[in-house]
């Protein structure tokens, strides 16, 4: 029986497979108990199962940032974060018992993190540090203006003019409060990092919404929330059951 129980929270299939392979090759004492791709899945599993010995959490998941898991449930096991973004945050994590790996994860880096884990005698992660890093990530990347394409021009638009952002045909668009649609040169993840978190929230994989565009919320199936926005998008915007508490907290802040 393997001594160290591991959970992987990663929404990229190849990244999860690579991590499992490296663990099997370089840490045979570690067994992967579960792999999850979202905040909702991971939170549900952690509520229903004994805590693992160690967690590998990708920072940017399909339904938001994995930091949100720490706000929804009590995490009392060490976590090693993995990400392809936010290089400047690496040192902030390394001064704490939580380590940080840049993707793609390489064997040498993984072994260094595992050695650190073994020497730490399983300390609890510092929630205050996690929240501080999350806030730092937000503040350092926030912008007040976005550049958008308009015919043969590129024009600056204040972020506050946007009611919501959405993905259509794998391209990122922004809809203003005047119901004007603009194409943006960002990935959805990069855009999320640039927006002020006190005003914008990632509702789901397809939408980021401005709090000023939210007219009301309706209860939906399976504990989810449906958002009524102004102007109205072409489809229903839903908040997952796992994200509802965090969404309500954000709305009341």
| Shape by Cα distribution | globular
Structural class: alpha+beta
Strand order of the largest sheet: 9-8-12-11-10-14-13
Instruction: Give the CATH architecture of the largest domain.
Output: 3-Layer(aba) Sandwich
CATH superfamily of the largest domain: Response regulator
Oligomer: single chain
Give the total of domains: 2
Total helical segments: 8
**Largest sheet, strands/sense/barrel:** 7 strands, antiparallel
Domain Response regulatory: 5-118
Domain HTH LytTR-type: 176-253
Keywords: DNA-binding, Phosphoprotein
Modified residues (4-aspartylphosphate): 58
Task: Kindly describe this structure.
The protein has 253 residues and is an alpha+beta fold. It has two domains: 4-140, Response regulator (Rossmann fold, 3-Layer(aba) Sandwich), CATH 3.40.50; 145-252, OB fold (Dihydrolipoamide Acetyltransferase, E2P) (Beta Barrel), CATH 2.40.50.1020. Helix content is 31%, strand content 32%. It contains eight helices and 17 strands. The chain has helices at 13-26, 39-48, 67-72, 90-94, 107-119, 127-141, 188-194, 244-252, and strands spanning 4-9, 30-36, 54-58, 60-61, 64-65, 79-83, 100-102, 145-150, 153-158, 162-168, 171-176, 181-184, 200-202, 207-210, 214-219, 225-229, 237-239. The protein has a seven-stranded antiparallel beta sheet with strand order 9-8-12-11-10-14-13, with no helix packed on it. A five-stranded parallel beta sheet has the order 2-1-3-6-7. Strand 6, helix 4 and strand 7 form a beta-alpha-beta unit. The longest helix has 15 residues, at 127-141. The N and C termini lie far apart (47 Å). Residues 5-118 form the Response regulatory domain. Residues 176-253 form the HTH LytTR-type domain. It holds the Pfam family LytTR. This is DNA-binding response regulator.
